[in-house]
Write a structure and sequence with these properties.
Blueprint: H1 15-33, H2 43-49, H3 54-114, H4 127-131, H5 150-167, H6 176-197, H7 206-228, H8 237-254, H9 259-276, H10 280-286, E1 315-316, E2 324-327, E3 330-333, H11 337-349
Antiparallel strand pairs: 1-2, 2-3
Length: 355
Amino acid sequence: MNAASGESSPRAHLDALTGIRGLAAWLVVFYHIRYSLRDLVPGSIIEGLAKGYLAVDLFFMLSGFVLWYNYGARLRAGGAGAWLAFYQRRLARIWPLHVAILAAFVAFALLLLTTGRPAPDMPFAQLPLHVFLLQNWGFTDALAWNDPSWSISTEFAAYLVFPLVAVMAPWDRLRLPVLGVLGALLLTALWGLFAVAGASGLGHDISHLGLGRCLLEFWLGNCACLIWQRLPRHGRAPVGCAAGAALIMIAGWTLDAPEALFVPAALLFALLGLALGKGVVVKSLSAVRVRRTSFRGFDPALPWPGKACPTPDQRVSPPHATGAHVRCGVKRTRPDPWFSTNLLLGLNLSCFLPF
C-alpha cells in the first residue's frame, strides 16, 4: 500500500469482482425472462428471480469501483487529454451496440406500423433522446424503445461527471473515517431520494428515479474503492465486511424495510468483502470464467483491473492465435458483439410475443 497516494502497489487482481459481475448479469437476464419460465421452475424460484433487478444496483457500484481503480489517479494527473481519452473510450464501449439495438427496434416498429399494428411503446418523438443516450434523464414519464437501455443512459451521465468528481477534492489525503462518513451520507441520500418520492423498491419509477439511483450508487462505488485502498488485506476486515453485508440483508428482509434503506448498504459491504477477501467464496468467484460479452442493457462494459499498464491501451498479444488477448497481463476472451446483440434483441422483442 502506498500511504501517500492511498493506492495499492503493485496493483491487485480482483478476479472475484469479474466473477460476481458475470453471475449478476445472468441474474438480470433471468429476471427479464422469468415469466416464460413459469411452467419450468417452481413459483418460489420465479419470486426470487423477480428481485433480479437489484443486480443492476450492484453493477452501478461495480462500475464506480472499477473506474476509480483504473482511472481515478490517471484523470487527476493527466489533465484535459486524459479526460478526452476517457470520454472517447467510454462512448466507444457503450454507444455502437446501443445504436445497433435501437436500429433493430426502429425496423421492428416500422414493420408493425406498415402492417397496420400499433407500436405504443416505440414513440418516434422520443427517438432522438435514445440516440444520444438521454432517454432516462427525466425528460419522459415512462420507459420506451429498448427498455433495459435506461441503465446505459444513466451510466453515461455518471461517465460525464466522473472526471469532475475525480479532481474536485484531494481524495488521496482523506482518511478512512472521513470516507466512512462520506459513504454514509451517500447511502442516506439514496434512501432519501426514494423516501421523498414515496417509492419502496429500488426498481420503482425508473424514469424519474433511475438517474439519481445510478449516480449515487456509482459514487458509492468510487467511495468503496477509496476505502478498499486503505483497508488491510488480512485480518478481520474481509470477514467483517462479509458479515456486515449478510446481517444488513437479513435484517432488512426480516423487518420488511424499504430496499433503498438496506440493499445499497449490504451491496457496499459485500463489494468490499469480495475485494478484500481470499476465502472459499472469493476463490470460487475468481474461478468463474465468463465470456467477456457486454450485457449492454444491464451492465455497460467495465475495464476490469489487472496489472498496471504503462499506457491506457496497452495490449500484449499472445504468440498464437487462440481467440484471446491479454490486457494488462490478464488473459481475456475477445468480446462477441453478435452474441450480445442477439441476446438483448431477443430479450426485448420477447416482450411483444405471446409466450
